[in-house]
């Protein structure tokens, strides 16, 4: 703004403008940066629609980029944000198709952007939102599709989407807590493996050369040092066999858990594993109760709710039990009656609360209360496990360092005495 415009604007407002009316005195540099910032884009625009966009004329590198995008993962956080913003926009009166198309342009996940573009395109051509979403079964679960379908049929899309986004947020938060609790021991184990590898490959051979030059034979070395020598020889000379055995064991394990019998036994072992198995059972009860409450609140029939909930649980033992509950409910039994014969999977207090919910016709509200209670228990258990792992990892690292110190430093400290014995 020049001085002429500045004075005329001040005259119109009744008071002259001076330098104190501006945030910075030298607006030249700021104006240039602001003009540059205006040309920046927060996301790369991608209008690709699956089954419609033509990819024949795309370059080789663009096709590689497309393949990588199509293989990328869509997280719970992405979906929770989408459902929440969709609920906000629908509640504000924005048409569903326009809302989906708008959210597609702002999604940071490029694959999710393409999925939303495709959903919006199909909706514009007459498909319902549920039908358009059901094309992407690897993105949207059966439970999510069921909630959206009920929202469309009942006209309560905004409320059902808010509930769904809240549920996905809780699940994402739980996954982050589990990851945070596991990253510490994993990091310690990885560091120990790297340190051991470095000691065996670089440090120990130099130490042995030093001792041999001092006239120390391998027979006179301490037991711990000779044990490390054996490991070093096996690691250096037979590393290919070690890798082959590891890959072979991993392949056999995958083949075993790929069978129905092996998968069920492995899932049962995870539930029986000391300390972590109890945590896993609490997590599955939490997911069962939260999914049950969400779907019943959405107005889905109980048998359908149980089927969808069973499919949403990854553990096959729980899947088998939920399938048994479904069969019993079809014959007229209550959910609580079908749960009470298996306290290992569903504790007594859960069964009693479910019984109260069924008798009072408030199964959705009671399921939500169970989910809230087990969310607290899972959080407390995670804190206990984390507090237990920290001193345990310190103890493991201390023992490891002590053994390495004995194996590496002991022959150096005793070098003179060993030589005098010869």
Gyration radius, rounded? 32 Å
Integer tally of domains: 3
Please report which band the strand proportion falls in: under 5%, 5-15%, 15-25%, 25-35%, 35-45% or over 45%: under 5%
Largest sheet: none
| CA(first)-CA(last) distance | 94 Å
CATH class of the largest domain: Mainly Alpha
Number of helices: 19
Task: Please identify which CATH superfamily of the largest domain we are dealing with.
Answer: Type II secretion system (T2SS), domain F
What characteristic shape results from the CA principal axes? globular
CATH fold category name of the largest domain: Receptor-associated Protein
- Mean pLDDT value: 83
The run of helices and strands is: HHHHHHHHHHHHHHHHHHH
* Structural class estimated from helices and strands: mainly alpha
Q: Kindly state the number of beta strands.
A: 0
The CATH architecture assignment of the largest domain turns out to be Up-down Bundle
Spans where pLDDT lies below 50 across 5 or more residues? 1-14
Q: Which range best describes the helical content: under 10%, 10-25%, 25-40%, 40-55%, 55-70% or over 70%?
A: over 70%
Short recap of the structure:
This protein has helices at 3-13, 27-38, 60-71, 76-91, 96-106, 110-124, 129-133, 142-154, 157-213, 223-237, 239-258, 260-272, 276-297, 302-312, 316-330, 335-339, 348-359, 363-413, 415-421.
Describe the fold and architecture:
- By secondary structure, the chain is mostly helical.
- The protein folds into 3 domains: 3-38, no CATH class; 60-169, Type II secretion system (T2SS), domain F (Receptor-associated Protein); 183-422, Receptor-associated Protein (Up-down Bundle), CATH 1.20.81.
- It is built from 19 helices and no strands.
- It has helices at 3-13, 27-38, 60-71, 76-91, 96-106, 110-124, 129-133, 142-154, 157-213, 223-237, 239-258, 260-272, 276-297, 302-312, 316-330, 335-339, 348-359, 363-413, 415-421.
- Helix 17 packs antiparallel against helix 18 (363-413).
- The longest helix has 57 residues, at 157-213.
- The chain is globular and about 90 Å long.
- The termini are far apart.
- The model is unreliable at 1-14 (pLDDT under 50).
């Amino acid at each position: 703004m020049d001085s002429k415009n500045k004075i005329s604007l001040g005259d119109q407002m009744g008071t002259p403008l001076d330098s104190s009316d501006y945030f910075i005195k030298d607006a030249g540099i700021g104006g240039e940066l602001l003009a540059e910032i205006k040309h920046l884009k927060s996301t790369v625009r991608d209008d690709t629609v699956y089954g419609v966009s033509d990819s024949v004329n795309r370059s080789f590198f663009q096709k590689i980029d497309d393949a990588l995008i199509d293989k990328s993962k869509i997280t719970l956080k992405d979906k929770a944000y989408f459902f929440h913003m969709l609920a906000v926009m629908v509640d504000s009166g924005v048409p569903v198709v326009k809302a989906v198309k708008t959210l597609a342009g702002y999604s940071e996940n490029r694959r999710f952007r393409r999925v939303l573009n495709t959903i919006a395109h199909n909706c514009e051509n007459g498909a319902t939102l549920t039908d358009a979403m059901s094309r992407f079964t690897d993105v949207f679960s059966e439970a999510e599709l069921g909630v959206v379908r009920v929202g469309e049929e009942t006209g309560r899309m905004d409320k059902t989407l808010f509930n769904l986004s809240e549920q996905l947020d809780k699940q994402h938060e739980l996954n982050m807590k589990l990851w945070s609790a596991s990253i510490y021991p994993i990091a310690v184990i990885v560091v120990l493996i790297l340190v051991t590898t470095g000691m065996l490959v670089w440090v120990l051979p130099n130490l042995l050369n030093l001792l041999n030059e001092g006239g120390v034979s391998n027979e006179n070395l301490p037991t711990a040092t000779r044990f490390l020598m054996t490991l070093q020889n096996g690691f250096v000379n037979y590393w290919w066999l070690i890798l082959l055995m590891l890959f072979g064991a991993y392949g056999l394990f995958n083949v075993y858990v790929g069978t129905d019998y092996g998968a069920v036994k492995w899932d049962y072992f995870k539930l029986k594993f000391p300390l972590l198995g109890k945590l896993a059972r609490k997590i599955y009860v939490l997911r069962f109760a939260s999914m049950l409450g969400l779907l019943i609140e959405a107005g889905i029939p109980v048998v359908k709710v149980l089927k969808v909930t069973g499919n949403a649980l990854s553990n096959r033992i729980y899947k088998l039990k939920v399938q048994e509950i479904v069969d019993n409910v079809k014959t007229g039994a209550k959910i609580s009656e079908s749960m009470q014969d298996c306290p290992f999977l569903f504790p007594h207090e859960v069964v009693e609360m479910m019984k109260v919910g069924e008798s009072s016709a408030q199964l959705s509200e009671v399921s939500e209360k169970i989910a809230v209670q087990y969310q607290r228990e899972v959080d407390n258990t995670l804190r206990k496990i984390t507090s237990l792992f920290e001193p345990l990892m310190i103890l493991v690292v201390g023992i490891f360092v002590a053994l390495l110190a004995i194996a590496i430093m002991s022959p150096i400290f005793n070098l003179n005495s060993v030589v005098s014995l010869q």
